[in-house]
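Sorry, explain these tokens?

___
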Amino acid sequence: MASKFEIGQRIKEARLGKGWTQAQLAELAGTQRQRVITWERGQHMPGSIYQKVLVGLLDVDLSDIDEEVMEMRSLLQRVEEIRARRPELGSLT
């Protein structure tokens, strides 16, 4: 599974490979340049809609993001199952 930083590097390398600036990618993706910066720095992951847009624009593999999300959901579900059996632990919310 790739880290946020590794995903960001893929986005940056693909963008540079196209010869685009961050501002150009942002415009094509329908977002702001600052969001592209946070993706490339590994500060945030692109949401599912932007993942699809980036894959289409940059021909970059971002499948690791989906794997990470699925793993996190699985872990949260497991925690809730344990807490349901052990009410003294409380809930996540």
User: Anything to note?
Assistant: Residues 63-85 form the longest helix (23 residues). The radius of gyration is 17 Å.
